[in-house]
Amino acid sequence: MQPGTGQPGAGQGVMVGEYLDRARRSSEFVVIPLLALAASAALFSLFLLLLGKSPVDFFALVWRGGFGTGFSWQNTLVRASPLIFTALCVAIPARLGMTVIGGEGALVLGGFAAAAIAIPLTPWASPFLVMPVMVVAAALAGAAWIGSVGWLRHYRGINETISSLLLFYIAVSILNFFVEGALRDPSDPNKPSTAPIGAENMIGPMPGTSVHWGLAAGIVVSVLVWILMNRTTFGFAARVTGGNVRAAQGQGLPVGKLVVVSCALAGACAGLAGYFEVAAIHGKANASLIAGYGFTGILVSFLARHNPLAIVPVAILLGGIAASGGLVQRRMDLPDATVLVLQGLMFVVLLVSETLYGRFQIFKPKGT
């Protein structure tokens, strides 16, 4: 306060102005994605009208199938768990300016590694040993898989988007090679799978729900990743590298190490998604691991602007849309994949909306 005037001092006024400018800039990253969602919903409504279906009925069923009942919510949260992990697989390298889209491969290998290492341990080892070993195996498999993408990018100049996508197909081939060969369970002739990991090594639901503990683990990991990328020197160095690689090298930052470690951390997250799919859902490794969570995680990460904390609610939103597919199919006589068309439109519109950032005066500080 100015002495004797009762009016705010100049310093306090500057602080308030800076706070408002920061809020104005930050709101852009909320408003534009929301507008992209609204635009994709409008385009999808036109698509439904061309098919002779009611957009109102469709979105009402999406709400009911994803969020309308307690059962719907639990189904949504179960689907959100792997989406959180696979979205983190995209978000972490994105801080370094990398676009890694092969999280599905790390999920597949993580789940396979968890099941494969549990099979010889199950007959004699306690679950208190088997389950941590499965977690470590899944995380290491995912870290090695996506970490190799970072290594190829920095030391061989290979585009990480292409290499991570191609590695997904290799991961699927590795899974099929073993579950249809050396590790196939002969007691299951219908679907090639590994032997079960045993009920004692499965993860139960959280108390009072049918949602497994993978959701809680995903939220915890998201918070830890946010702290790592926003409150540590490692995260600061990663952001500097993502902003300008030459400037980072000029400052003496270990760019190669940052790239490889960030990709390895990203892959570990996707590997954990595979672990929870095996230990909480399937109980074995088979082709059911290839459920598209890694590719939906790309949309989740982009919609959340690669913010680990924003990934959680966005994953729940996308999980709810996916959970409603069956209800839409039964009530509207539409394919279950209709919700995938909606997700595809959301992704395309979201990419187009990237060109809108910085174009609206309302989001800019006054005087700029």
Structure notes:
The chain is built from 14 helices and no strands. Helix 3 packs across helix 12. By secondary structure, the protein is mainly α. It has one domain: ABC transporter involved in vitamin B12 uptake, BtuC. The mean pLDDT is 90.
Would you report the number of β strands?
A: 0
Largest sheet: none
CATH topology descriptor: ABC transporter involved in vitamin B12 uptake, BtuC
Q: Given this structure, which CATH class is correct? A: Mainly Alpha
Number of separate helices: 14
Mean pLDDT: 90
- Morphology: globular
Distance between the termini: 28 Å
Based on CA atoms alone, the radius of gyration comes out at 23 Å
Low-confidence stretches: none
Content-based structural category: mainly alpha
* Overall helicity: over 70%
Number of separate domains: 1
Keywords:
368 residues, ABC transporter involved in vitamin B12 uptake, BtuC, 14 helices
Kindly summarize this structure in a few lines:
This protein has 368 residues and is mainly α. It contains 14 helices and no strands. The two termini are 28 Å apart.
